[in-house]
Design goal:
Length: 338
């Protein structure tokens, strides 16, 4: 009889409540639970993906005899790999399986049974008792949001410290193949302004695999104090935002302060920041006046052109919750436009 993982496994919960869990935490907790209990488990991981693949690079799944956690994309392909993993677990077969999957009916080999036209490489990695300390180190890194990366290869499973410039994913093909992945959240969102819209946006972003920071310059602000979704909350002076917010290709900044003046201060601080996304909430009239003020102050047009404003996709949103949906949709669009 198959029992749901959430009922069967009393794993130690992560240190986040309403906050989004770091990517793959549940997968590793599931694997660790079974290894601690002396039960076999296997890891499935999508090492690379191209085109319309059901599972993207980095998708993972932990498979045990009667339950699973995570997903490598679903459908018949996932079903076949789960069956294969369970067969290897029953046979105590420790051999890795590295298998291309081509999602086209006319493919001469490696057909997945799906017809969505993409391709991917899936790894089946039977886990061993000696992998448990490494998996537990990965769980700690995910729970603490510490910089670490996962390495999978023919020689085994490793967790190593990550440098600031460690890439999100690396897959080396061939006989000396390896796969590396930075653990945790690849993308970070900083929301400047902790009001009602920021609270609504935080609730949405908690489901979208972003590490979330909310900043405000008002001590004791109730909507900041009551925000359970942000991983980091701080009261800061907007004149110091350039020092507070890191730069980088995976940094997203959303400005939604309580008024025109703090918006201007924040923009002046952050226009020169090298980030993936810089957005400003405001009506068309306010935005036009603010941009005019910045132009008159001599700020270059190319810098102003970087600002996404009015922020969000045009869905005629009115309430904080609707605005949050439109902003989150724009962040997704920018993130997935790579």
């Amino acid at each position: 009889m198959t029992v749901l993982f959430s009922v069967l496994l009393p794993v130690q919960p992560p240190s986040f409540s309403s906050q989004s869990r770091p990517r793959d935490l549940l997968v590793w907790q599931h694997a660790a639970y079974h290894l601690r209990a002396g039960q076999p488990a296997a890891l499935l991981c999508v090492l690379s993906s191209h085109g319309s693949s059901p599972g993207r690079q980095g998708f993972k799944m932990s498979v045990a005899a009667d339950d699973t956690a995570g997903s490598i994309g679903g459908g018949i392909m996932e079903h076949k790999f789960v069956d294969l993993a369970r067969a290897k677990l029953r046979e105590a077969d420790p051999a890795l399986v590295l298998r291309p999957q081509i999602h086209r009916r006319e493919a001469p080999t490696d057909r997945s049974g799906m017809i969505c036209s993409g391709e991917q490489v899936v790894l089946l990695f039977p886990l061993q008792a000696h992998d448990l300390p490494t998996i537990e180190a990965g769980i700690r890194a995910l729970e603490q949001l510490s910089a670490a990366y996962l390495r999978l290869s023919a020689t085994g499973l490793q967790i190593n410290p990550a440098a600031a410039d460690t890439p999100g994913f690396t897959y080396q093909e061939g006989s000396d193949w390896y796969y590396e992945e930075r653990l945790g959240f690849r993308d970070q969102v900083t929301v400047v302004g902790g009001g009602h819209v920021a609270l609504a946006l935080s609730r949405v972003l908690a489901t979208l695999d972003f590490e979330l920071t909310v900043l405000d310059d008002r001590p004791g602000l109730n909507t900041l104090a009551q925000n359970p979704y942000a991983h980091h909350k701080r009261t800061v002076r907007y004149e110091a935002l350039a020092r507070e917010i890191p730069e980088g290709p995976n940094q997203f900044i959303v400005i939604m302060t309580f008024g025109y003046r703090p918006d201007e201060v924040a923009l002046r601080q952050l226009l020169g920041h090298r980030v993936k996304y810089l957005g400003l909430l405001g009506s068309q009239a306010k935005v036009a006046q603010l941009l005019g003020t910045l132009r008159a102050a001599g700020l270059p047009e190319h810098a102003l052109a970087r600002i996404h404003t009015p922020i969000g996709l045009p869905i005629h949103s009115r309430t904080p919750e609707e605005i949050a949906i439109s902003v989150a949709a724009e962040l997704i669009s920018v993130r997935n436009s790579e």
